[in-house]
């Protein structure tokens, strides 16, 4: 099967365009937290609800979010309060759909596929989650790699999954192409879906990170998914779920993923820090 004809290829190209848009719009800035204390949010869900949906914050505002700062980000980020509607779209639609297109829709609408990238042009993508977090309920952030390494020297270590912190930054947004890709797949299948929620994406231009160091404040976890995309038409999407804070569970999931019959046909792998080859790295292929 030709690499160019696989349905997951345009999905990841769309994700790459979103990432490039976020990186391109990044501007490192300094702000005094004391002057903006009213813009403090208890995790990303608080930010999405009280800040975005209820109008408590707007593009350009400086905000602070308490939660888990992680090198893992959502492959297809967005407002998590739209997750239930997205999940329903996978199972409730009119018309018929073949297995290949259904796999693509399920992968895109799942919301919980993780991605870990190396630094891009001196800047890094980070994920912001609840202290005991789930990958599908996060917020995308962009931060200077120099500053990130200064605050968290082990951030790019293969075993690092995150630290509890108060993260400050300015709200920005960039266009995302996911809606157009999903709409194209749905049109081929005769499926009616609402893609308006994909038209833009809020993210945080991070300019401060204050780590929580007391033991009772620093405990955290992250429920995440590992994935591999193959050129097997029958099973293009290989997924395994686990808590990334638990190394034994993480290794168990990795071993299960690698034991799948389609593993040797992997074309894209979710984690650039542990990939077998640079040839399957997301950024090498799509950015």
Identify the notable features of this structure and list them briefly:
five-stranded mixed barrel, 12 strands, four-stranded mixed beta sheet, alpha+beta, globular, 287 residues
Rounded to the nearest angstrom, the distance between the terminal CA atoms is 23 Å
- Gyration radius (Cα, Å) is 18 Å
Q: Provide the spatial order of strands within the biggest beta sheet.
A: 2-5-7-9-8
Structural class: alpha+beta
Number of distinct beta strands: 12
Question: Mind explaining what this structure looks like?
Answer:
The protein starts with 7 loop residues before the first helix and ends with a helix. The protein is globular and about 50 Å long. It has a 5-stranded mixed β-barrel with strand order 2-5-7-9-8. Residues 27-33 have low confidence and may be disordered. It is 31% helix and 28% strand. It contains 9 helices and 12 strands. The protein is of the alpha+beta class and 287 residues long. The chain has helices at 8-24, 43-53, 83-91, 99-109, 145-151, 178-189, 215-218, 247-259, 282-286; strands at residues 40-42, 62-70, 72-74, 114-116, 123-129, 132-134, 139-144, 163-175, 200-211, 221-230, 237-243, 266-269.
């Amino acid at each position: 099967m030709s690499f160019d004809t696989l349905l997951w290829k345009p999905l990841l190209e769309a994700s790459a365009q979103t990432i490039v848009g976020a990186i391109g719009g990044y501007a490192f800035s300094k702000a005094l937290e004391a002057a903006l204390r009213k813009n403090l949010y208890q995790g990303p869900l608080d930010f999405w609800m009280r800040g975005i949906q209820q109008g408590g914050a707007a593009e350009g505002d400086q905000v602070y979010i308490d939660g888990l700062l992680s090198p893992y980000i959502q492959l297809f980020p967005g407002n998590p309060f739209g997750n239930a509607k997205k999940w329903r779209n996978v199972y409730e639609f009119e018309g018929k759909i073949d297995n290949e297109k259904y796999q693509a829709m399920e992968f895109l609408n799942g919301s919980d596929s993780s991605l870990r990238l190396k630094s891009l042009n001196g800047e890094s993508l980070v994920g912001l989650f609840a202290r005991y977090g789930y990958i599908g309920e996060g917020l995308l952030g962009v931060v200077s790699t120099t500053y990130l390494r200064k605050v968290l020297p082990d951030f790019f270590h293969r075993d690092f999954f995150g630290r509890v912190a108060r993260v400050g930054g300015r709200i920005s947004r960039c266009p995302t192409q996911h809606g157009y890709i999903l709409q194209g797949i749905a049109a081929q299948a005769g499926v009616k879906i609402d893609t308006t929620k994909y038209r833009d994406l809020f993210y945080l231009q991070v300019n401060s990170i204050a780590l929580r160091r007391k033991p009772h404040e620093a405990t955290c976890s992250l429920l995440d998914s590992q994935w591999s995309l193959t050129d097997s038409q029958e099973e293009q999407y290989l997924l395994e779920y686990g808590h990334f804070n638990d190394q034994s569970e993480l290794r168990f999931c990795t071993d299960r993923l690698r034991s799948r019959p389609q593993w040797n046909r992997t074309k894209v792998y979710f984690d650039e820090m542990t990939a077998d080859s640079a040839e399957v790295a997301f950024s090498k292929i799509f950015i």
